[in-house]
Specification:
This protein has 167 residues and is mostly helical. The chain contains 8 helices and no strands. It has a domain of 70 residues.
Length: 167
Amino acid sequence: MARTKLTDMLTGPGGDEARLRIVPDAAAAPLAPVPELPPEPTPETTAAAAAVPVEETLAPKKAVRSARPRRAPKARAAATPSVSDTVLPPYLRFARKETRLRDDQLTELTFRARRLNRMKAPDADRITDNTLIRVAVDLLLARADELDGGDEAALRRSLGLTLGERS
């Protein structure tokens, strides 16, 4: 079996004539102008560039201050729930924060959340792992004055916790 030439694949069986029939204006189309290159440096331009001190070219520019005084920061809105907060589902009312938990913590959280969901009233909000984590953070913050220590194990001991310590 004979190999097909690349030119035959590009131009088709009729060669150049077929290509010209497919793209009739290809031969008559003007060429795009070539962008001009910057001029070659001359001895005069290189000498002028060398005359500028290095410190002057590397020195940072000083910031120009405006004559206007700065605006005072805007007062933040009070932490009262807005109308949109009551319309949103519970999980969208909270800010997202990622945390790393041990496998035993994840397992126990899931187990406790499922157990509490079975015991709650049918019309109450669903209890999730995140619900329990938020309650745990509230408990930690309520006892924050008791926290003392330089690592996780010492912080646990300062709160009277022994669970989760690794030997």
